[in-house]
């Protein structure tokens, strides 16, 4: 009896040792684009994998088991609901090399609500159905932001359907930022939430909706630069331009009788011309000093 137990114990130890060797062939890590998000925006995770197997490896999913998986939990350590079945394409890593895969977790999991969350990733060896190599766990927070302005609008070409534009203030990583959020008028679902940029609240952001049902936002990004953004009802950033202060004070967002919206009292910022001027200054500073 004791001999049988010894043999079983030896067999289990051998299995565990082999499993450890399989996991040891990969070095994996996980990082997020940031740790503080506005609820509904993209939560970008970057999974890094280093191949120590001594041969090239091609990671792929066979329809039953994914080679890449995530474990996302809330503040109660409960798993966050999946949006659907995610599929990850092939990734080949040559022996000794490192590659990364970028994934938007908000497209895979129900991450549209505020709260505290954590995530880790699992990478499985090609052909493996086991637990795989688990990365470090990263915590992140989602905030609702502070609503600054809202406006409901109809969707062009779709009678009876509406969207709600929202402008949100958010202080993440000790910086004031401005976000746009588009909500479906019928379902209340988030269509898109995304960052417009850092903002200086020395001047209040200006907003308007034009005849094409596009949202216009004008905000102070630096002490001398204003940013003008146009967003359509699908959440697409249609246009983004930079303006400088005009002769009559700060730039203004003007709505005309025909329903068009334009920026007035500003000097459009020519990025190309500014770069050329900066290059000229740098070239002049590179000249050697004159000696006599």
Summarize this structure as a short list of keywords or feature phrases.
single chain; 292 residues; mainly beta; Immunoglobulin-like; 2 domains; five-stranded mixed sheet; five-stranded antiparallel sheet; 2 helices; elongated; disordered N terminus
Give an overview in words.
The chain is mostly beta strands. The chain has 2 domains: about 120 residues, Immunoglobulin-like, CATH 2.60.40; about 130 residues, no CATH class. The chain is about 15% helix and about 45% strand. The strands form 6 sheets. Strands 2, 5, 8, 9 and 10 form a 5-stranded mixed beta sheet that branches. Strands 15-16-17-18-21 form a 5-stranded antiparallel beta sheet, with no helix packed on it. The chain has a 4-stranded antiparallel beta sheet with strand order 11-12-13-14, with no helix packed on it. It is elongated, with a radius of gyration of 27 Å. The N terminus is likely disordered.
